[in-house]
Structure formats: C-alpha cells, structure tokens
C-alpha cells in the first residue's frame, strides 16, 4: 500500500497504531547499536590463529630478516606479495604500513599538504581554495580528513555503477579540485561496485590539476556476501594505459579480514609517487610493526586460505544482512523508503522520504536503537535531502538485528505518515 | 705519549707502523657495523615471552574491552599505567601509540605545522622563518624531522649537565624559535643526563614564542648500564610549577625494552594539548594496535618485572661498552681523542681531532668497519669541527666490538699523525 495514496483518515488511523507500537518499544528499554561497521566477536574468533602464529625462535622473514628488530621500512616482501595477491597491484608498487589504512590515507594527504606530490606546483596547504570530490553517500571518516585539512568538499552522487561521471568530468576542470575519495568495491554505505567503464574513465579523464589524486580505498576488496562477488577493474592498469599512473593512491587492509584493531594496511602507488612517499615516510618512522606482518603471513599460508577465511566471514554476516532485508520487505510497497541489496561489504544504505532521516534517527535513538548519525554519510554531516541512513548490521547478533529493524521499520512508517499528513496540511 | 709533542721523526716512524697495521686490517676482509643503536639478538630473545603472551579467548583488557576490535583510540588504560610507572607522567596525560615514538614525534610536529598547537597564533607552516634548537651532538633522526619540515636548525652545545642553557636562554628570545629536541637521559650520543637545574630552567625559562615546545624524547628512561643509574628530574612537575605545562611533549617507547620493530610508544602532554591532539588524531586513525599493548601488559606483570628485564639488557650490553672503553684506553694519553663513559643508553660519543672525523670514517669504511656517518650527529649532517663520531656497540658481539675498536683506534692514530704532520708543514 503506497502511503501517499492513502486518505487522511487511513493515515491517522495508521499513525495511532504505529504510535502504540512505538510506545511498546519504548517500554522495552532496549539497547541496540547498528551504527558502525564492526565485525562481530564470532568473526574475530576465526582469526585467532594469528595470536599463536609466532613462536620464539621463529621471527625471521623468508629472507632471514629478524622481524623483531629495526629495518625493512617498507614492509616484508612476503606481505607485499600477500596484498598483491588479491588487489592485483604489483608487489613493487606496495608499501606495507601499520594497523590502519585510514592512517595511511591521512598521512598521504598530509604529505600532499606539506610537501606536495608528484606533479605539484606547490604544497596543497598553499592552495587556498583547495577542493575535494566526495561521492555521496560515502564514508564519514574520509570526509573528516578532508574537512580537517581545510578542503572545500563537493558532493558527487553515487549511481548504480559508481560516481556520476558527468559531474566528475565537469568538476575536474577546476585546477583547485585536487582529488576524489573512492570506495570502489562494495562502497560504504551503498554497497555498489564501480563498473569497468567508470574505473576506466576515472583513470583516463583529463584533470586540470596536474597533481590530481584518486584516493582508492579498496577496503572491501575480498569481502563478498554473495556466492559470486562483484569484480572490480584494475585502476592501476587503466591509469598506466592512459599515462596517468601517478594519479592513483591505492589503499587496503586486513582490518576486516583479520582484526580491526590489529590488522595490516598498505598503500600502493606509481614508482615516482613511491620514491617521494618513501623519502618522507623514512623521516616519519623507522618502520611499521613487522612481527604483525609475519603473523599474518604465517596465518594465511596461501591464497586459498584467504578465500576460505573470507567465506567464513560471509557465512556469519549473511544472515544479518538477510534479517535487515527481510525486515525492510514490510515497507517494500509503501513508497516511503528505498535501500540497497549489496553483494558484499559492511553496509546497507537506506533512503527514507526527503526530510525524514534526522527524525527517524531521533525516534530510534529514544527507543534504544543507535543508528549511524543522520547526515554522517555526507561531507560536513549535511545530507541536503535529509534522507540517507547507513545500516551496519554486522556487530549485533542476528536476533538483535531483527529487533533493531523492527523498531526502525515502525519508526520509518510513523515518521513517513506524519510527514505526509503535515505536507498535506501546508499544501 | 701526547702526539703533538712528538718530533717529526717520531711521528713519521709511527705513521709507517700504523700504515702497516692498517694494511693488515684491509687484508682481513672484515665486515663490521657499529653504526646504529640496534639491540643484539640476545637482547631480543629476552622479550620472546611477548610472542606467546596472548591466547585465543584472552584478548580482553582489564575493563573487558575486546582488544581485537575497533575502539579505545588513546590506548589501554593499563598500558598508560605501565608508562606512567616509569616516567612519572600521570596516566591521564598519556596517549598510547603504535610501535614508533619517532612517528609520534613526527606526527606531533606535523600537527603543529598544519593546525598549530595550544598558544599558536597560526600554524607553523605559515611561520616562514621558523627555527628549532638542536642540542649537538644529537640524534640524526630528530634533525631529519625538523629539516624535512623546513625549520632552520640552530646548534646548541651539549655540556656535562645538558644543553648550554646560556645559549638556550638567549635563543628563545626569538619568537620564531618554536622548540628544542631533547634526549634528557643518556642522551644520544653523549650519554649525558640533564641535571635537575637544567630541567628546571628548560621548564621555567621565558620564551618569546607563546607556543614554544620541548620535544622531550625520554627514549632511555630505564636503560641503565651501571648498577646505579642516573636520575632525571620530572619536567612536567617543573613546567606545571612554572605555569608552562603546555610547553612539554613527552615521548618514550618500549623499542629498546622489548622489540625495536614491535614495541609500544607513547606521547604525553598537558590536558589542553591532549584535547587538541586527540581531536586531530581521531581523524588520523581509529586507533593503534591494542593487541600489542595487551601483549606487553601480559608480559610485564609489574614494575619489578620491568626492572629485572632491564637488568638483563644491561648485563648483555655492559661488556660491549667495556670493550669500547678498554679499546680506547690505548689512546688515553695521546691527546688525539676524547670520549664519553655513559651510565646508560646506547651510545658512546667520540671526539677526534678537529677536521679528522670524516677521514676516520672513510678509512674505517675501507677496512670494512661501518661507523655512523661523520656529521650525522649534527643538523644537516654538518659537524662544524668535523670531529664527532657516534659509537653504537650493542648489535655486534663483544669480540667483534673489540676488533672494531682495534681498527678504529689504529685509524684514529693514523689520521691524527698525518694531521699533525700536515699542520706543521703549513704552519
């Protein structure tokens, strides 16, 4: 039943029923949280072999390097091979970092700010009107970096096959537009994967800034939920073909493969970029934690082990995503919400009626359900249509997810009914 | 026998003998390295309990937090307590970082550059003539940071009791002087510990820059070689008394307590500084590796365990320092070199005759002995008197250290003889 086609009377009756139901939820004193993309405890447990992967007398890399001591600032060769294995990025283009790809991204941005990057006429901190493209809805922590460093952030809509490339092509004609945030596979929060065509265009398009950078955060490279996952084109290969290999900063990590708090991250870039990055990184640190790299290598003996491991993750996660989608099916034909059905990643993106997301967030919060803040998926926390909400079902148990979505659906209905009635009054 | 009092004839004879001996070394095809402050394998072995400190099902902090997952961005409370235990810094002033205190220093400097710090009128990157005080001889990696970030570095001599405070007091009258590097205990490379008086003066002196910062790198806080180690005054307490608590950025790590490549580092600062640091660090990363913090906590059950552990280090290291000092005793009365006799830390600082350090380095290198580069202990790698060399005897075996110092002493003698003869010719 499409709500907007219901009579005032029908809507008022429905509102009464929904208010009753909502009050029941209030009385339950629930405390549920589907706000952050955190793996569940059961997911962490499947990596616990890592805790016992190293033994005294067994801390040497393949080449015999003692990973306990200083040295090997750009990481273990075998860890580069590990990342190369599932990203397709050549080992020689990889630097292995610490436990946080976000930190590698922030640090990469800071280097551009203070030193400039390959092709820069001057450090970005001297570019007063520096701008950055943000695919929306997107990842709040990306936007926090560019906000913190004083970029004017420009929204670019996410479409089925990736960012709206008409908008991107137009915007990169401005030389002050220095780059774009991309989560190209199972994007946060929509779950979209960029099409080959979009990847190719991003790699080949003409940019006015000679130092334009794509921050390619392939956080969910191997995080399939469906039996057959999406495939992502190789942006490095495409950029090289177009003579733009310096355009790409490529990131990934094992944060959601092994441990969010104690995984291993990487940055990859062209030879020219890498030389500059290393020369500065070598001032910043003597090296990242190589023992943790070695733990990962010992734990994942080969690519098959990684695939089998990721299947375990998806087995744990899938039922929770199903619980969300099943819950949402109750409002499938109401015309009050749309949501994504991703084949991987950590999120479902939910669009409610324009102007309703903040109110949905507020009423859920009062009923004990924490969602990612309304607006969080947009730069400056401002969703221009106040409609997007990010659903992160992984941390809770399946039953809790069911309860959470029950509350959410009730609240969406209630807020939508009220909105329709209010709109009719002012019309 | 003081070389400068020898006749030309005596010196020429001695030169011939030394050249013969040097040629013998050349023939041995040695490969020795006393260039970096790296712990020996035997020192790493004593920490190997860390490798097995965590078991599946045992990854929770005292408060029950699952250290495998996201969260606790400023570190485990018990790890703060650990650092507080031996630095005397209150737990509430501590942020626990990753495996590298150097990285925390670089990142702290970068934040000052891009955002400014408490008291700043503007970010330091906008202070065109920014300057930094460098106690010399000092730590090359400190100097690399301030060089990389465009500071004009000003040498301040190290005296028996710390930096030349007459010079420091004069220099900080310049508002463009933004700070000073300090290794206050067992300083790199001289091994001096700052006197209480010097610590007090650094904390209380009037600085023209309202955002003057002391980067207090207490890297060797508990690294005694002698039975009774040096004691260092509490700079935080002194700064607080003087109303300058925002002046101090305090760093230390377990790099030379447990593993250089996989220890835990910290930064401590005043409440006002900490609030600013956290607000930016929270953009940079979701958090450092808490599992490694937990490993350290499990391994060191209490302060006594730490003391006992550090005694094991000193037992391994002491004989190597003795080997250096014994070797140097051969040139004790020659008037051609002076060296320090530290009660802790990782280095012995050696001053040869003015203008001779580079040549000593070169001849040692040719004979297969790698020293820290001549000049490395000074900003820009420029030792104005070309006389300082840093001896790092920890990584080699005791016997190798003996051989290395044998070569070094022969080379010092040879270079000194030649220098004296050359000086007489041009006189």
Can I get a quick summary?
Two copies of one chain form a homodimer. Chain A is of the alpha/beta class and 427 residues long.
Please describe what this structure looks like.
With 427 residues, chain A is an alpha/beta fold. Chain A has 2 domains: 3-43 and 306-426, Aspartate Aminotransferase, domain 1 (Alpha-Beta Complex); 52-302, Aspartate Aminotransferase, domain 2 (3-Layer(aba) Sandwich). In chain A, 41% of the residues lie in helices and 14% in strands. Chain A has helices spanning 8-28, 41-45, 77-87, 101-115, 140-148, 165-171, 196-204, 235-241, 271-284, 290-299, 303-328, 357-366, 398-426; strands at residues 32-34, 94-96, 131-136, 152-159, 162-163, 177-182, 213-217, 248-253, 265-268, 337-339, 348-352, 369-371, 388-391. In chain A, strands 2-9-8-7-6-3-4-5 form an 8-stranded mixed sheet, sandwiched between helices. In chain A, strands 10-11-13 form a 3-stranded antiparallel sheet, with helices on one face. The mean pLDDT of chain A is 97. The interface between A and B is large, with 54 and 54 residues.
Query: Order of SSEs of chain A, N→C?
Result: HEHHEHEHEEHEHEHEEHHHEEHEEH
Report strand % of chain A.
5-15%
Number of domains of chain A: 2
CATH-level-2 architecture of the largest domain in chain A:
3-Layer(aba) Sandwich
Oligomer: homodimer
Number of distinct beta strands of chain A: 13
Secondary-structure content class of chain A? alpha/beta
Report mean pLDDT of chain A, rounded to a whole number: 97
The number of distinct helices of chain A, counting runs of at least 4 residues, comes to 13
In the sheet with the most strands of chain A, the strands line up as 2-9-8-7-6-3-4-5
What is the CATH level 1 assignment of the largest domain in chain A?
A: Alpha Beta
* CATH topology value of the largest domain in chain A: Aspartate Aminotransferase, domain 2
Q: Which percent range fits the helix content of chain A?
A: 40-55%
CATH 4th-level superfamily of the largest domain in chain A:
Type I PLP-dependent aspartate aminotransferase-like (Major domain)
- Biggest sheet record of chain A: 8 strands, mixed
Low-confidence stretches of chain A: none
Biggest interface found: A-B, 54 and 54 residues
